[in-house]
Amino acid sequence: MNENTNTGMIQMDSVSKWYGQFQVLIDCTTKVDKGEVVVICGPSGSGKSTLIKVINGLEAFQEGVITFDGVSVGDPATDLPKLRSRIGMVFQNFELFPHITITDNINLAQLKVLNREKDEATERSMELLERVGLMDQRDKFPAQLSGGQQQRVAIARALAMDPSAMLFDEPTSALDPEMINEVLDVMTELAKEGMTMMVVTHEMGFAKRVADRVIFMDEGRIEEDCTKDEFFGGERGARAQEFLSKILTH
Amino acid sequence: MEGGFDFAIILESVPYLAEGMVLTFQLALLGISGGIFFGTLLALCRLSPFAPLSFIAGSYVNFFRSMPLILVIFWFYFMVPLIVGRPVGGFWSVTIAFIMFEAAYYCEIMRAGIQSVTVGQVYAGQALGLTYRQNMQYIVLPQAFRNMIPIMLTQAIVLFQDTSLVYVVGLGDFLVHADIVANRDNRLMEMFTTVAVVYFVLCLLGTLYIRRLQRKLAHE
Amino acid sequence: MNFSYNWDWGVLLCTVEDVDIGCIAPYFYWIVEGFGWTIAVASAAWVIAFTWGSIIGILRTLETPIWLTVPFVKSSSTFKTTVIEATGGVVLINIAWFLHGFATVYVTIFRNIPLLVQMFLWYFVLPEIVSKEAGMWLKRELPLPEYWTAVTCLGLYTASRVGEAVRAGINSITQGQHYAAMAVGLTRVQVYRYVLLPVAYRIIIPPMTSDFLGIFKNSSLALTIGVLELTAMTRQIDEYSYQTFEAFTAATVLYILVTAIVMFAMRIVEGRVAIPGMISLGAK
Q: Which of A79-88, B86-95, C238-247 has the lowest mean pLDDT?
């Protein structure tokens, strides 16, 4: 699995990260091609959240190289805010900005980072709200919406930046069961349209339907990194099997 | 800077300054203990279901928390003798002023402390057959105090600094003694710098101790 | 109660014209003038306290490094510490560490020295330790030296309290909000400006109100260096007329009024800026 071809939109080579003495990521190497949907799964504390967060530089890493579309993430000379504007990210706890309306939430980065005109930005925001089915809530504040609605706004907020790739950090883990599907539907559609996606999730049904590849992480290492069919069908390592058998009920 | 920094004068005046510091500590300790005692009483009154008691305590607290301490000191320094009908020592007027002032602040701290003891604890005590007073004495107040120790100590440091305000009535505390020496020998810079450094060191030590205490309490 | 005391509320309303009531001086106007000085000192000091305090508070939240290149310095070695690092011949310095440290030292100094002592340091010691010209300017040329000294002292002291409040407000915002703001491409400055500060300031309205009232009350300390604010005036009336009780009552009433009005106003402000849908903000 040692591709030295720089074809990956997201390319990660021998990345290690320590929190003090504790090593959170151990020699992680993988890549995500343009248009690929990669699902990352594994037990808690395996480092999956951290893996996602080092890709757009939210977390620093001590060893290895990460490039996004050719740009090195770890290089001190890289303009991280600019890089991040090209990568969309959706968080487990939605993290909408509470003090502004959801329309303004979607507008904010368009105005301040991409320097779009107010009209242009608002138009795009309306488009996206329509697409995620929340047009009629456009003047509401985040606290007035349900979890599923907030997460859909969060996806719209990320899409407003016209990103080249989207990262999802357990997007449905904080949702009540009845709202999980509305969010997964939006994500499925995105995948169908060819968005490059990296999704940390426990939703194996989603993985089976939508993913191209599955990565299994355990204790900071990438234990399995194969196609979806290989992962769910064939002989995988003991740890992965154990994990799958515990959570595969969907 | 005229004539350089005169360390000698500081060394010479150490005994006199120490005298002043004794008064500072006396005032502070009386203020703290009186403040905590009456503050706790006030907190209990404020939390009482008996409306008039709660109202009176609340008004007392709001009143004293709107006042500058200097004005309160003036009130007691000039009013107490008039009320009592004869001259009262400055020290005791000022001490009463401090206690009554600090009681309002400690009341709020203790009130927060008492409310931080979960209601389940109170129920448990009642279920065991304890009276209100016993409940307070053995279950609620001890826990309330423990929760609030860092904040109470921080308030104590604030009080320690506030004792310097007796300057306005000339009571001989640490600052006033330094001021006297400063004016007598025209060494304002040396004396006030000394005062600042001494207060800084004492308060910093206190603050560091509180931080260590907080860490210890957090680990239990 | 043995009250051998001549009550005379009229003393508060004496004006120069009413000679026949036995008044010597315009006490009413003294109260007004004193109150005016109190407001003047408090408001000017608050402007300093709020702006400088916000900066100090923000500086105290700078945990992650900000690397700046040191000009003119070249290094052939390579090392990496939390404060300074050298790679590829260039030396970088973590300016966040220095700013954070400065703010911490600032707060430590200003909170561990009594306000009255600080006042004396500014008024008596500062002119001595600056250069001869600056010292002369402070003592002779500066208009209203007592006023400006009191304002500066009070402002810088309260800034340390405001700083602590701002720091607490920012720290009570979850890390997730930081991440979300950065993930969407906002720079550090933008993160503070559009996401952190708007929420933090709403959270800290109660402690800020308390600090604001604190400035009002602490303005009374200015009387020790000669500012004739409200409390000073009551002493003056007391000395002139021996109507102690009336004089102090007037001041007391005014302080209570100020507190009541400010608290009322702040409650309205809190209602106005409240975020729809949220019952209570932040720090629980």
A: C238-247
Q: What is the pLDDT of residue C20?
A: 46
Q: What percent of chain A has pLDDT over 70?
A: 93
> At A222, is the secondary structure helix, strand, or coil?
strand
B and A in touch (3+ CB pairs within 8 angstroms): no
pLDDT at A238 over 70: no
Residue B208, both tokens: 């560091």
CB contact under 8 A, C275 and A53: no
Chain C residues lying within 8 Å of A82, measured CB to CB = 185
**Domains of chain C and CATH, by start:** 9-63+115-273 (1.10.3720.10)
Over 90: is that where the pLDDT of C257 sits? yes
Chain C interface mutation, best of A97, A104, A124, A151, highest count of C Cβ atoms under 10 Å: A97
Question: C121 in contact with B at a CB cutoff of 8 Å?
Answer: yes
What is d(CA A97, CA C200) in angstroms, rounded to the nearest whole number?
Answer: 12
| Average model confidence (pLDDT) across chain C | 84
pLDDT over 90 at A223, yes or no: no
Q: What is the pLDDT of residues A143-174, one digit of tens each?
A: 999 999 999 999 999 999 999 999 999 999 99
Q: Which element (helix H / strand E) includes C205? A: helix C205-218
Would you state the pLDDT for residue A15?
Answer: 94
Q: How far apart are CA C215 and CA C50, in angstroms?
A: 11
- CA–CA distance, B161 with B200 (Å, rounded to integer): 10
Q: Which residues contact B76 (CB under 8 A, 6 or more apart)?
A: B93, B94, B96, B97, B100
8-state DSSP, A238: H
Q: Name the residue facing A99 among C174, C187, C199 (closest C-beta).
A: C199
Range of A199-203, B10-14, B184-188, C126-130 with top mean pLDDT:
A199-203
Q: Please check whether residue C39 touches B, CB under 8 A.
A: no
Sort out which chain C residues have CB atoms less than 8 A from A93's CB and list them: 174, 176
C15, pLDDT greater than 60? no
Does the domain formed by B7-219 have CATH 1.10.3720.10? yes
Q: Identify the chains in contact with C, defined as 3+ C-beta pairs within 8 A.
A: A, B
Q: List the one residue out of B103, B38, B44 whose CA is nearest residue B69.
A: B103
Note whether C221 contacts B165, CB cutoff 8 Å. Answer: yes
Nearest to A207 by CA among A237, A232, A225: A232
CB contact under 8 A, B168 and C124: no
Q: Count chain B–chain C contacts defined by CB atoms under 8 A.
A: 114
Q: Where are the domains of chain B?
A: 7-219
Give which of A95, A108, A141 to mutate to test C binding, by max C Cβ within 10 Å: A95
Residues of B in contact with C1 (CB under 8 A): 83
Distance CA(B193)–CA(B199), nearest Å, equals: 10
pLDDT (0 to 100) of residue A102: 94
User: What is the rounded distance in angstroms from the CA atom of residue A228 to the CA atom of residue C247?
Assistant: 86
**Are residues B199 and C113, on separate chains, in Cβ contact within 8 Å?**
yes
